[in-house]
Amino acid sequence: SPDPGRAWLVCGFLVVAWLARLALGAAVQCLDGNKPCENGGTCVVYSNGIAACLCQPGMIGEHCQFQDPCHQSPCANGGSCESTLRDGTVHYQCTCPKGFRGQDCSLFDACASKPCVNGGRCTNWNGRYNCTCPSGYQGRNCRSDVDECRVSGLCQHGGTCLNTPGSFRCQCQAGYTGQHCESISTPCAPSQCLNGGTCRQTGDLSYECACLPGFEGHNCEINIDDCPDHMCMNGGTCVDGVNTYNCQCPPEWTGQFCTEDVDECQLQPNACHNGGTCFNTNGGHSCVCVNGWTGESCSENIDDCQTAVCFHGATCHDRVASFYCACPMGKTGLLCHLDDACVSNPCHEDAICDTNPMNGRAICTCPPGFTGGACDQDVDECSIGANPCEHFGKCVNTQGSFQCQCGRGYTGPRCETDINECLSMPCQNDATCLDRIGEFTCICMSGFSGTYCEININ
């Protein structure tokens, strides 16, 4: 069998590049005794008739005819090697780890740590790096800013030079512009007028602005406040705009000048809560609350326990337009003013005792099989209505219940189930069992007889 330690991989009868491209004729070569595999390679034929060469370590190619350059581990410093076959020639390529470069990863990559900053370009040179700095920076790593203002005359016509990181800026005298203050300034190019104002030159270095409505100032930089003569009514707040104003109205008013009343009764949700009736008024509204609620919007539940008359020891729980008295042990009634008759356990065992809240008397709810005021009387289920036992079973009354004595062939609490005597498989010798009421019949195979077909008559 093929050596699993050799570099080969077959997946769905596809052999990867180490074993080279496959041809259908290769299987015939193996079967004919030819030796297409060189350098000790083994010719392997797969179940689909395709053949391939399984090469010895260190050899690659369709016929194992090439030495694998990666077999000698040419990549240094932990680099990974990959062999390729192009135009009949074997090549290899090293993928170097971080910090190394070169064909065999033997050269130290000094630029791997990106030592050049501020846009500097890094180049390797004999294991060291060199930074080519952009304009405005200098130093081994391009960290130092060049002070361009040390060069006199950089800013013309009396301009002041201001150094900036990586560059400079000229602060020009009035009438001059440009990077070096080299150009005579035209007042309206660009326009100094803001907010859509129109610039008009009035002299060599002077101008004036024609402002749009709503603005003023030398450069039209001031928005005129239109609110001093506003017409906002009913507590509305004036909000200045551009050559206009808006009125911000309180919730009760609307309209341009807050003069239109808001009908709160038409709002959703309704201004009056919990079923209250809303009545609109000029600049407001009023609510008529249903019983149990109060407040401006009928959202406050009236505490009925403030006027409740629960007896001493009871706990009052407020409800909507009512209250509930939680009684202490031994007391009952709407106000806990009655003695609880259930304390003395007047009801028979398993019965449920409740107290009449009007008079404090006990009310017994009987379990099945018992009746009477105290649930102490047994119900004779056998004498009321139809016989509860099916299939002519005999009903026997018991305390709180009844039992059924079933006739032959039936079972169950009410004799409702037919006993299948065939379940015990009484018939022998492959006979068929026929279930009947209270009995069974065996239908014997030919040659057998007897109640259970147990007799061989042949």
Structural class assignment: mainly beta
Instruction: Record the strand order, biggest sheet.
Output: 1-2
How far from one another are the termini?
A: 67 Å
| Overall strand count | 46
Averaged pLDDT: 86
Taken from the alpha-carbon principal axes, the silhouette is: flat
CATH class descriptor of the domain at 42-108: Mainly Beta
Q: How would you characterize the largest beta sheet?
A: 2 strands, antiparallel
Topology-level CATH name of the domain at 42-108:
Laminin
Strand content: 25-35%
Stretches with pLDDT under 50, minimum 5 residues:
1-28
Instruction: Please tell me the CATH architecture of the domain at 42-108 by its name.
Output: Ribbon
Which percent range fits the helix content? Answer: under 10%
Number of separate helices: 1
Query: Going by CATH, what is the homologous superfamily of the domain at 42-108?
Result: Laminin
Rg: 54 Å
From the structure above, extract its key features.
single chain, 458 residues, mainly beta, Laminin, two-stranded antiparallel sheet, 1 helix, 46 strands, 2% helix, 33% strand, disordered N terminus, EGF-like_CS, receptor, disulfide bond, developmental protein
Structure description:
One of its GO terms (cellular component) is plasma membrane. One of its GO terms (biological process) is Notch signaling pathway. Belongs to the NOTCH family. This protein is mostly beta strands and 458 residues long. Among the domains are: 67 residues, Laminin (Ribbon), CATH 2.10.25; 36 residues, Laminin (Ribbon), CATH 2.10.25. It is flat and about 130 Å long. The strands form 23 sheets. It has a two-stranded antiparallel ribbon with strand order 1-2. It has a two-stranded antiparallel sheet with strand order 3-4. Strands 5-6 form a two-stranded antiparallel ribbon. The two termini are 67 Å apart. Helices cover 2% and strands 33% of the residues. The N terminus is likely disordered. The protein has 1 helix and 46 strands.
